[in-house]
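In full, the data:

***
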Amino acid sequence: MSQVNDLSAPLDTQDDTQDGTQDAQAQPLLSVDGLTVSFKAGRKDWITVVKGIDYTVGRGEVLGIVGESGCGKSVSSFSILRLHNERTTKYGGSIRFAGRNVFDMSNRELLDLRGGDIGFIFQNPMSSLNPLMTVGSQLRETVRAHRRGLGKDEIEQRCLSALRKAGADTPEEWMGKYPYQFSGGQLQRVVIGMALINEPKLLIADEPTTALDVTIQMQLLKVLRHLRDELGMSIILISHDMGVVAQTCDRVAVMYRGRIVETASAARLFSDPQHPYTKALLSATPPLDGPEPKRLKTVADSMAEIEAAYREQEHKEA
């Protein structure tokens, strides 16, 4: 239900006429309900950094999660696979993937989920790869961990196929190289290939275009769109780049200070934003056409209105 006039609740202004979106939401692949994430601070204190967020991802849907650095985008997405140190992390709410609550899964079930049904592309591709192993060795290891019983030839073909899907021009050659022999864009393709190798149902891409030039960014976005259009893969795209999100996503969730303050179809969000924070983010984006503004607005220019709406939401959820 639309909550356009109530800024004390997270805005959901999704356009139900968008092709495929309504069907995708009928039976979501992923459902996050009231998720809270708290980290231990000292001996007894806990700091809550994700504060009761809700969203769904339909089958074959691309959901964008946007917001400034530190708002909780990556923390909430890491929680889907329970990647945080569980001795210093407390979770609340529920995360259901294909009908199963992730918080009820055993360690064995989590290992099967990570890199199996859910693929993850991390921000820094170099940190995801072992510099002492060839790309081929690392890809084969990923297959063996989740697809036990496959023969050597089947594993090799799966590795080559994953690299091709990620946009590798000469996958056979790439298999024999070490990470240091690749450019930044090529490394990102390797990481995408590794995330795809076990044919996941959901791909989580955490800032996949960060630090890449515009040409490489466009190529990688084309790969993500292909995964959605041709393979029916569901994708969560985490980004602070509104242009990247506008080109790629079906729906967008806007995060501010640990909360989702607005959710809408991409078309609706960019044409008619409702929450003050969403409006401020879009106003801070340089226009591609029309007269150049003398001064771009910043989020700080709208801080009083943003904080008022945030406090209303915080009070209502307390």
Observations:
- The chain has two domains: 11-117+201-272, 131-199.
- The mean pLDDT is 88.
